């Protein structure tokens, strides 16, 4: 059986960088194998029945000298499990605000730096980039067929676009035409106010298609359907060059989810929860809850949901991270 290690990590920001384009965090350079000389966030393993937050407070003192009295607030983020070759790590992630007069230094004589992994060239764990992608993940994803140009135009406007991520599905368009059409939508988005980030997700419609990586780099994320998912391996899937770019998949059962887990996907769509368009049975919230417990990443409920607080609350209640929809979004 593969070992599961439980760890808590803290996001401790450099206060002087908060208002700048960079968001620098405290990082410590590993001096042991595996991953020697890689920079990691302060934190460590849970010990002796500790809660994740208690472990974090202990580790912050042991590693960078932050005492509990210096901690102003701790914000909890969704946990996830990251798969390595011989073990798995359940990461509990917290943003930690400390008093301005706190003096931070490595108590273990490790190299300590304030770094933004998206701007600096130091080596970081892949799970660190996964945390950044999680922090940027919207709670709502609108799915639109590529032929539905009117709906796409409705969603790509300042009022709608800032609230949700948009996944545009390829419905029988030529693959090259599909990608080029999304690039054109992307150009329109860039003409919106600068504070609107690129929130477009593009489907990878064919496993054997020679991917134009430079074209795909500009999108917020790429997505696989459940059929392609089962043919993927870590060496045979999209390779991101933008560390904030997400990779997601559609899942309908436990086998799909377990495959997505092994690939360390950023999130999944789980359907059909309340509505089906074919012969498949609906999951219902009861089965949805059972399946979210298997997932090692955020889960979006999909199928018969409406874009409102009631359905968001139901998704969260039964283990989901967010909601997604086609007709009612």
Write the layout of secondary structure elements.
Blueprint: E1 3-12, E2 25-29, E3 39-40, E4 43-45, H1 52-64, E5 71-76, E6 80-83, E7 87-98, E8 112-115, H2 126-135, E9 140-145, H3 149-155, H4 158-161, E10 165-169, H5 175-190, E11 200-203, H6 213-216, E12 221-224, H7 226-229, E13 246-251, H8 254-262, E14 267-270, H9 284-292, E15 299-302, H10 309-317, E16 322-325
Structural summary, described in words:
By secondary structure, this protein is of the alpha/beta class. The chain folds into 2 domains: 133 residues, Nucleoside Triphosphate Pyrophosphohydrolase, CATH 3.90.79; 186 residues, TIM Barrel (Alpha-Beta Barrel). An 8-stranded parallel β-barrel has the order 9-10-11-12-13-14-15-16, surrounded by 4 helices. Strands 1, 4, 5, 6 and 7 form a 5-stranded mixed β-sheet that branches. It has a 3-stranded antiparallel β-sheet with strand order 3-2-8, with no helix packed on it. Helix 10 links the parallel strand 15 and strand 16. The longest helix has 16 residues. The chain is globular, with a radius of gyration of 21 Å. The model has no long low-confidence stretch (mean pLDDT 91).
């Amino acid at each position: 059986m593969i070992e599961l290690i439980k760890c808590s990590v803290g996001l401790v920001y450099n206060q002087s960088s908060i208002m700048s384009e960079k968001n620098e965090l405290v990082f410590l350079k590993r001096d042991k194998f595996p991953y020697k000389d890689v920079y990691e966030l302060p934190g460590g393993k849970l010990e002796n029945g500790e809660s994740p937050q208690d472990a974090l407070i202990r580790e912050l003192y042991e590693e960078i000298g932050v005492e509990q009295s210096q901690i102003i607030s701790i914000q909890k983020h969704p946990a996830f499990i990251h798969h390595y070759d011989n073990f798995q790590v359940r990461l509990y992630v917290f943003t930690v605000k400390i008093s301005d007069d706190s003096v931070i230094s490595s108590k273990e004589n490790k190299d300590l730096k304030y770094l933004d992994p998206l701007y600096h060239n130091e080596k970081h764990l892949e799970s660190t980039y996964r945390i950044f992608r999680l922090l940027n993940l919207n709670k709502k994803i609108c799915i639109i067929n590529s032929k539905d140009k009117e709906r796409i135009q409705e969603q790509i406007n300042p009022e709608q676009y800032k609230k949700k991520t948009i996944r545009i599905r390829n419905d029988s368009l030529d693959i090259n035409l599909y990608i080029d059409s999304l690039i054109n939508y992307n150009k329109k988005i860039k003409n919106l106010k600068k504070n609107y980030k690129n929130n477009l997700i593009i489907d990878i419609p064919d496993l054997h298609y020679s991917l134009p990586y430079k074209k795909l780099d500009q999108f917020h994320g790429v997505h696989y359907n459940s059929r392609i998912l089962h043919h993927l391996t870590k060496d045979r899937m999209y390779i991101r060059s933008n560390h904030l770019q997400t990779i997601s998949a559609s899942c309908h059962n436990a086998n799909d989810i377990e495959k997505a887990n092994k690939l360390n996907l950023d999130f999944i769509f789980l359907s059909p929860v309340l509505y089906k368009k074919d012969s498949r049975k609906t999951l219902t919230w009861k089965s949805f809850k059972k399946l979210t417990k298997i997932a090692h990443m955020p889960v979006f409920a999909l199928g018969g949901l409406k874009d409102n607080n009631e359905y968001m609350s139901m998704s969260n209640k039964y283990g989901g991270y967010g909601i997604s929809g086609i007709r009612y979004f």
